[in-house]
Write a structure and sequence with these properties.
Layout lengths: L10 E5 L10 H9 L2 E4 L5 H4 L7 E4 L11 H13 L4 E5 L9 H10 L4 E4 L4 H8 L14 E4 L1 E2 L2 E2 L4 H4 L6 E4 L5 H10 L7 E6 L7 E6 L3 H6 L7 E5 L5 H12 L1
Parallel strand pairs: 1-4, 1-5, 2-3, 2-4, 6-9
Antiparallel strand pairs: 7-8, 9-12, 10-11, 10-12
């Protein structure tokens, strides 16, 4: 196997994973070590950023759901500007670049500027979140498919095949779903979902301050509203923490 090499004037889209630096791939570590410039999302943990080379220039280009954000056009211009100088550029994205990461828009900008690029995949937060509650995304005789969906898109709350999501045994990882919780609840109940369907909310998946909230579809908006979530959270529809994880969580809440 040839070790990963980031060429001058090239951009590497690197998945930073959900936050725990030990979940980075070896290829991601090599890319960070070789980078002259790291253009990173707001949600990248300090522990991951610390793995960049000591001479690397770190540039935050963050987006906040329903809040202040660096425009996509400005991010595209940053990548082109630094790659044009011959710098080795890492575009560091939370989770996996290809999962709700606007990867295609950024690739299109580089293609238009005739700048080379490569993709280094990363662990998406759904995988880390479901591991944290001791479950699996698929299970024989329960679900043979799993959906990754977003709670909102550029036009507002995102629409989906709610009838399919409402079926018994369905599992979905809902990204950016905190503010859309009541909307999601309403659509699912409208299409026949059981109000007692389990939903687990995982905030800051894989990080030292990870928090898990257990709810049902009927209680989901109230649980989120009362929990003062301020970090990135993912909703695991159809999954509750396995008994051992639920017991541990209860002990932590009591202590």
């Amino acid at each position: 196997m040839t070790p990963f090499t980031l060429s001058p004037g090239q951009v590497a889209f690197v998945g930073a994973g959900p936050g725990d630096p030990e979940l980075l791939t070896l290829k991601a570590l090599r890319a960070l070590a070789q980078a002259d410039v790291v253009i990173h999302d707001r949600l990248i943990s300090d522990e991951v950023l610390a793995l960049a080379g000591p001479e690397a220039r770190l540039i935050e280009a963050g987006k906040t759901g329903f809040g202040p954000a660096v425009t996509q056009e400005a991010i595209n211009a940053l990548m082109v500007e630094h790659a044009d100088t011959g710098a080795r550029v890492v575009r560091l994205k939370s989770g996996d670049p290809g999962v709700f990461g606007r990867l295609d828009e950024e690739i299109d900008a580089l293609d238009e500027a005739r700048i080379g690029w490569t993709i280094v995949p990363g662990l998406t937060s759904a995988t880390a979140a479901v591991a944290g509650i001791g479950q699996s995304l698929t299970k024989r005789e329960r679900n043979s498919a799993v959906r990754f969906v977003t709670g909102h898109d550029m036009k507002g709350y995102a629409d989906h095949d709610w009838r399919a999501l409402a079926r018994p045994g369905e599992v979905a990882a809902i990204y950016m779903g905190k503010r859309a919780a009541r909307f999601i609840q309403g659509r699912l109940l409208m299409h026949g979902a059981d109000p007692e369907t389990p939903v687990t909310v995982v905030e800051n998946a894989s990080r030292a301050d990870e928090r898990r909230l257990t709810a049902t579809l009927s209680t989901l908006p109230a649980v989120i509203a009362s929990s003062a979530l301020d970090g990135p959270a993912i909703l695991l529809l159809g999954l509750a923490p396995r008994a051992a994880q639920a017991l541990t969580l209860t002990k932590q809440e009591v202590s």
